[in-house]
Amino acid sequence: MSVVPHTTEETDASPEPISPSLRRVQGIASTALDRTKDATANALTASRQAWTKAAEVKRQAQRSLVAQRVATLADKTAAQTRQATAAAVVASRLGFARAAKLGRETVLPELGRASAKVRERTRPERLKQDWREFLLKWHANVGDKGIEKLSFTPTQAPVALEALTVKGPNRAHGHDYKPTPKLVFDWALAGVPEDFSKFSFVDYGAGKGRVMLLASQHPFTAVGGIEFAVELHDDATMNIAQFPRSRMKCRNVECVLEDAAALGPLDTQAIHYFFDAFSSQVFGEVLAGIIAAYREHPRRLYLILIGQEGGELAEESGVFKRIDLPVAERLRAKLFSPYEIAVYRSLA
Ligand SMILES: C[S@@+](CC[C@H](N)C(=O)[O-])C[C@H]1O[C@@H](n2cnc3c(N)ncnc32)[C@H](O)[C@@H]1O
């Protein structure tokens, strides 16, 4: 196929003149086209609005469906909650009832027992007893260490009389062996304001001799002991024999194996020492001997009673009068002595 170039005659040809009727038709067509464009645009806008509305309606419908479901679910949950609450109330009532029953049956009695225990432990007498037990241990483990070290045969442990061989008829009236705490002895002796070099010292129921060893460290003219249990007397004798002489200010020390009620008192100025040795009956017999000797020969005598029954007999004798310990010793004894200390002096 050959390409034929346009002739310049065709390009340069002048346009044919438009007839008025054609121009009118063209005007009408243009107006119609414009109208059609406007109508189309309006229709498009209307259709978009309709779609938007329809979408909105659909969304609302969906929302209301969800709301309905939520409401249904809420109703269901509320019903379940009501049920659970009711069950919980019943259970808690039952729980309370059970707890109350349990409390009545177990906790209350236990509380009662505990408070009774507390009441018992804080009773003044009980507190006093606990304090006394503490003091006894303290004296044994601290205060008595020194004298115990110097004793050949240990004197600390208590010994029951029933296993021992006893001289005389007064076993039933005798008290078991236990030693005087060293500090208690010191406090009691401080209640005798005398020159000891003019006095004798006698321990009634001397046991293993601890008090005799303590007394021998003061310048008495003589230190005597009376013990009716053979085994204890032997221990006392051994302890006296083995005690360091350098410690003794009195070396005239002797323990006699005898019933205290059977032996007459010394005919000198003397301190008569009793530490929880025997019943007030035997004490009365011993005291009667001391008073008889005093009446024969009135002189300065002392009775030291530590935890010993029968103090009232001394008071009523008309021969002895109770005297106070010096203030410091009285205070120490009041606070730290497990035993009551009483000192009596003869009237002469
Ligand atoms: C509590 S101990 C005192 C021991 C010692 N006087 C002291 O303080 O370490 C009492 C002692 O008295 C003795 N005893 C009891 N009745 C006696 C009596 N009728 N004659 C002699 N000794 C007696 C007991 O054998 C016991 O050794």
Q: Enumerate the strands of the largest sheet in spatial order, edge to edge or round the barrel.
A: 3-2-1-4-5-7-6
Average pLDDT works out at: 87
Q: How far do the termini sit from each other?
A: 180 Å
Beta content: 5-15%
Tell me the major beta sheet: 7 strands, mixed
**Order of SSEs:** HHHHHEHEHEEHEHEHE
Return the domain count: 2
Known CATH architecture of the largest domain: 3-Layer(aba) Sandwich
- What would CATH call the homologous superfamily of the largest domain? Vaccinia Virus protein VP39
Main structural class: alpha/beta
Cα radius of gyration in angstroms: 60 Å
Describe this protein with a few key phrases:
Rossmann fold; single chain; disordered N terminus; binds S-adenosylmethionine; 55% helix; 348 residues; rod-shaped; alpha/beta; 11% strand
Write the layout of secondary structure elements.
Elements: H1 8-11, H2 20-121, H3 124-143, H4 145-150, H5 182-189, E1 200-204, H6 210-215, E2 222-227, H7 230-242, E3 253-257, E4 270-275, H8 280-296, E5 301-306, H9 311-316, E6 320-323, H10 327-336, E7 341-346
Parallel strand pairs: 1-2, 1-4, 2-3, 4-5
Antiparallel strand pairs: 5-7, 6-7
The structure holds S-adenosylmethionine.
Question: What do you see in this structure?
Answer:
With 348 residues, this protein is α/β, with parallel strands linked by helices. It folds into two domains: 36-122; 133-346, Rossmann fold (3-Layer(aba) Sandwich). Helix content is 55%, strand content 11%. It contains ten helices and seven strands. It has helices at residues 8-11, 20-121, 124-143, 145-150, 182-189, 210-215, 230-242, 280-296, 311-316, 327-336; strands at 200-204, 222-227, 253-257, 270-275, 301-306, 320-323, 341-346. It has a seven-stranded mixed sheet. β2, α7 and β3 (253-257) form a beta-alpha-beta unit. The radius of gyration is 60 Å and the shape is rod-shaped. The N and C termini lie far apart (180 Å). The model is unreliable at 1-13 (pLDDT under 50). Residues 161, 170, 174-175, 177-180, 203, 205-207, 210-211, 226-229, 232, 259-261, 275-278, 282 line the site of S-adenosylmethionine.
